[in-house]
Hints:
Elements: H1 24-39, E1 44-46, E2 56-59, E3 67-77, E4 81-86, E5 96-101, E6 103-109, E7 115-121, H2 122-135, H3 146-160
Antiparallel strand pairs: 1-2, 2-3, 3-6, 4-5, 6-7
The structure holds zinc ion.
Protein name: Peptide deformylase
Pfam families: Pep_deformylase (PF01327)
Active site: 131
Amino acid sequence: MLDIVLYGEPILIQKAQEIKEFDHDLEKLAGDMHDAMKRDHGIGLAAPQVGASKRLFVVGLDNEPLRIFINPRIVAMSEKTSEYEEGCLSFPGLYFTVVRPSAVDIEALDIRGKPFRLSADGLLARVIQHEYDHLDGILFIDRVSPAKRRRALAHYSRMLNM
Ligand SMILES: [Zn+2]
């Protein structure tokens, strides 16, 4: 089972590498990420969170099939935004409200390298944007005001020391 990389590890703030080989290793990585996500009760997980600098994330909402996004690009975002309380497997126990566009269009490759496009709204759009950010080394604490970020990190470090 893959371990989840926690906040503080440099890989979480680095830009991940484009995927060029669609082989058995990639399938295994995606499958192992899915298992780790479910084990930790997550609904999304990006490769940097398991220590792999690759542009790949998985999404597993309840009652939906596993979705895999490789070398994704968000090609459109709604002007309308929404608020939602987010968590992140790399920040266990930390939750706070993040404002993001309500809907996005994303283009990506599937596990065999075949392109697809998806229009998402609601929770799916939310998770896609959170995981997509991970591939660029952007964390959910980077999506709030500096004051809120400081409070969140102070709260998180207190929690870790408990
Ligand atoms: Zn996350």
